[in-house]
Amino acid sequence: MKLVRQLQRTYRMEPAGSHGVHSLDDYQFVPFIWGSAQLIDHPRLSPESFVNEQTVDQHKGENLFFDCVQYINETKTGPFAEHSNQLWNISAVPSWTKVNSGLFKMYEAEVLKKFPVIQHFLFGSLLPFNPLPSSHAAADVNATIASIN
């Protein structure tokens, strides 16, 4: 992550397909999933704790979620609730289990089910891609058109 972030800063790389304040982060998503999984059943850290900058600074080296939030704190200006609204909303979730589950669902909807993103994945025997037969695709299109009318 340090190398990737250094490249982003050095070359002033623009995020691809950013959703602005409506996304978790301009550049990454998976580290939030892994980091929230690390925090499931943590005895002291609850989801509301990552909005506290001192807590984030204290735990950034031991957890991916807090590390990602620290990077946001370093690169964004203004109130956290304004520049990272989705994350701010997540801080109200009661448990890391629910946060992790919600992030998985969000990743599926925003990444895995978006053809402009998934078209760049390398498919093969471990990750097969089985397109719908053309008759199914046509039926889906017809059903969509019928629902619009």
- The helix/strand series, from N terminus to C terminus, equals HHHHHHHHH
Structural class: mainly alpha
Any idea how many domains? 1
Specify the overall morphology: globular
CATH class: Mainly Alpha
Overall pLDDT metric: 84
Biggest β-sheet, characterized? none
Amino-to-carboxy terminus distance: 48 Å
CATH superfamily: Phosphotyrosyl phosphate activator, C-terminal lid domain
Approximately how much beta-strand content do the residues carry?
Answer: under 5%
Number of helices: 9
What's the CATH topology label? Answer: Four Helix Bundle (Hemerythrin (Met), subunit A)
Query: Residue share in helices?
Result: 55-70%
Uncertain stretches of 5 or more adjacent residues: none
Pfam families: PTPA
GO molecular function: peptidyl-prolyl cis-trans isomerase activity; protein tyrosine phosphatase activator activity
Protein name: Serine/threonine-protein phosphatase 2A activator
Keywords: Cytoplasm, Isomerase, Rotamase
Lay out the secondary structure:
Blueprint: H1 2-10, H2 30-39, H3 53-59, H4 64-75, H5 80-83, H6 85-90, H7 96-112, H8 115-118, H9 134-148
GO molecular function: peptidyl-prolyl cis-trans isomerase activity; protein tyrosine phosphatase activator activity
EC number: 5.2.1.8
Catalytic activity: [protein]-peptidylproline (omega=180) = [protein]-peptidylproline (omega=0)
Can you put this structure into words, describing what you see?
By secondary structure, the protein is mainly alpha-helical. The chain has a single domain (2-121), classed as Phosphotyrosyl phosphate activator, C-terminal lid domain (Four Helix Bundle (Hemerythrin (Met), subunit A), Up-down Bundle). Helix content is 56%, strand content 0%. PPIases accelerate the folding of proteins. It catalyzes the cis-trans isomerization of proline imidic peptide bonds in oligopeptides. It catalyses: [protein]-peptidylproline (omega=180) = [protein]-peptidylproline (omega=0). Belongs to the PTPA-type PPIase family. One of its GO terms (biological process) is mitotic spindle organization. InterPro entries: Phstyr_phstse_ac, PTPA_C_lid, PTPA_sf.
